[in-house]
Write a structure and sequence with these properties.
This protein is of the alpha/beta class and 296 residues long. The chain is 37% helix and 17% strand. InterPro entries: DpaA_N (IPR031629), NAD(P)-bd_dom_sf (IPR036291), Shikm_DH/Glu-tRNA_Rdtase (IPR006151).
């Protein structure tokens, strides 16, 4: 199937989007880009737009980042000097019928797309893609822990809140490194899997009795589960690492007020941008192929 007449806008993101843009060019598309780190040498055959609206102008398909949208509606773009908040006017510049492929969209973006006849394709929870980029995320989390603690992971007490695809990969890795891992999850099957992996499994209701002895707490659920009351139980040396999409697992404001060191480790897939960019492209390209098949 030819991509020759397909215009793709790659908007926001991090170094992964550089590789995604290259992959789109290799597939035969015309590519416009803005909002991610731009290499000094540029990206061959990719138009570097002056802003997001310029990138989206005339695009058939827009690619937005996989990390979630902030509460104010901004796309994940940690190196971009301005916030990129998709407006109706901005999106109206796309060709009709337009398509946006991204991790997940908020209510505001969905409202704009419905009004403009743009179809959203969300892939944040695709298990195969999560597993493909999982090793890079795990390596990124380990880097955050090592850089922000004065103890080893080995023999440390670590609590993982949530045991989805990435949480389970982290559990296996931390157990293998010799940590005392405690997994708190609602799902009974997930708790059983954590136990089988060598961790101690807890219900969320059991957290208060275990938090006082934790050195590190990792949140991986995109829902606020650790509020001030629970955070106050932690020792002052504890490190909090929130790897969840907005709003995150941890009340980071309360944690700061309690004097607890907290890192919101978003976009950990950027640890290996070429590897993860290509893995994300495998899912993105399948969706583009499906869109082009429907158009033909």
């Amino acid at each position: 199937m030819s991509w020759k007449n397909t215009v793709i806008a790659v908007v926001a993101g991090d170094a992964r989007e550089q590789e995604i843009a290259r992959c789109a060019v290799r597939a035969g598309a015309t590519v416009r880009a803005h909002g991610f780190p731009w290499p000094d040498e540029g990206i061959e055959s990719v138009y570097h737009a002056k802003n997001a609206a310029d990138a989206l102008k005339g695009a058939d398909i827009a690619l937005f980042p996989i990390p979630g949208i902030t509460a104010e509606g901004a796309l994940f773009a940690p190196k971009c000097p301005e916030k990129i908040i998709p407006t109706r006017e901005m999106l109206a510049g796309m060709n009709k019928p337009g398509h946006i492929i991204l991790g997940w969209g908020d209510a505001n973006l969905k409202g704009h797309c419905e009004a403009l006849g743009i179809t959203l394709h969300e892939y944040e929870w695709d298990v195969d893609l999560m597993l493909l980029r999982g090793p890079a995320i795990v390596e990124g989390v380990l880097k955050v822990i090592i850089e922000n603690t004065q103890i080893t992971i080995h023999k440390s007490n670590i609590c993982l809140v949530g045991q989805g695809t990435i949480g389970s990969l982290l559990t296996n890795t931390l157990v293998a490194l010799g940590a005392h891992v405690h997994v708190a999850a609602r799902n009974q099957v997930q708790r059983a899997a954590a136990y089988a992996a060598g961790a101690e499994s807890l219900t969320l209701e059991q957290l208060p009795q275990y938090l006082p002895k934790m050195d590190i707490v990792i949140g991986s659920v995109p829902k606020r589960l650790l509020e001030r009351e629970q955070l106050a139980l932690l020792p002052k040396h504890a490190l909090l690492v929130d790897i969840a999409a907005p709003p995150g697992t941890i009340d980071r404001v309360a944690a700061a007020e309690l004097g607890l060191k907290t890192v919101w480790a978003r976009g950990m897939g950027a640890r290996a941008p070429i590897t993860v960019g290509r893995s994300q492209w495998s899912g993105i390209s399948r969706r583009i192929e499906s869109i082009l098949e429907q158009k033909s």
